[in-house]
Amino acid sequence: EAGVAQSPRYKIIEKRQSVAFWCNPISGHATLYWYQQILGQGPKLLIQFQNNGVVDDSQLPKDRFSAERLKGVDSTLKIQPAKLEDSAVYLCASSLDMRADEKLFFGSGTQLSVL
Amino acid sequence: AQSVTQLGSHVSVSEGALVLLRCNYSSSVPPYLFWYVQYPNQGLQLLLKYTTGATLVKGINGFEAEFKKSETSFHLTKPSAHMSDAAEYFCAVSDPGNQFYFGTGTSLTVIP
User: Fold this and answer.
1) Is B83 helix (H, G, I), strand (E, B) or coil?
2) A interface residues, B as partner, C-beta within 8 Å
3) How many CB atoms sit inside 10 A of residue A5's CB?
4) Are β-strands A110-114 and A10-13 bridged in parallel, bridged antiparallel, or unpaired?
5) Which residues of A touch B36 (CB under 8 A)?
6) Residue A1 pLDDT class (50, 70, 90 cuts)
7) Does A104 contact B102 at a Cβ distance shorter than 8 Å?
């Protein structure tokens, strides 16, 4: 089966610029997650969708980050304007449903460097 | 609230030696516990998980982990390390709301 697809793989921008990441989850997966992984740290949840509705965005810096999942399939994560501390790997994951014992499937991530 | 602590950000073992990666958790409810592995330039992959039942859980690639409630631990082991085991390993706990909390990771180096 096809995995979680993410693009771009790498992105370099200057601070105050905007950037967008795209994620295509595994077909049929209702739950989609965006994680931020800063070097040397574990993944931190930014936002969680169930179909096209937001379940949890408590750790999303809403003054600069936004995310959407139109039609409950693909998702985009946007940063505007970017700050130096946003340099990280942005991971998208999906799961069949929203159960606590559910296995997460991760994409390869987008590595963002903010200069 | 749930949290995970991984002791040792870097672990080095010789090829063929025992692998032991430590994970302690904090949870206010019976936890679901996971180990994920991340190979260079790849996303995280599930190694194994504990939900209920048998406390010794076997995963892929010869790894296993034991849930010890009294010690709030879920350490990952493998009897004999292989060069291909070199990767970053993350312990995670999930709560009933299906939010996952990841540890800071342990980088495993295997010395030939």
Assistant:
1) helix
2) 3-4, 31, 33, 40-45, 48, 55-56, 91, 93, 95, 98-109
3) 14
4) parallel
5) 104, 106
6) low
7) no
pLDDT tens digits, residue range A19-76? 999 999 999 999 999 999 998 888 999 999 999 899 999 999 999 999 999 888 999 9
* Distance of alpha carbon B106 from alpha carbon B44, whole angstroms: 13
According to DSSP, residue B18 is labeled P
Q: Which residue of A has its CA nearest to B93?
A: A100
Q: Tens digit of pLDDT for each residue in B37-90? A: 999 888 899 999 998 888 899 999 999 999 998 999 999 999 999 999 999 999
- Answer yes or no: are the C-beta atoms of A107 and A6 closer than 8 Å: yes
Q: What would the two tokens of residue B65 be?
A: 């982990």
**C-beta separation of B108 from B58 below 8 A:** no
* SS3 state at A15: coil
Place of tokens 């379940």: A55
Smallest CA-to-CA distance from A58 within B111, B109, B99 is with: B99
Beta-bridge mates of residue A65: A79
* Percentage helix, strand, coil for chain B under 3-state DSSP, each rounded to 5: 5, 55, 40
Kindly state the tokens that stand for A72: 């409950």
One-letter amino acid for residue A80 of the chain: Q
Does residue B91 have a pLDDT over 80? yes
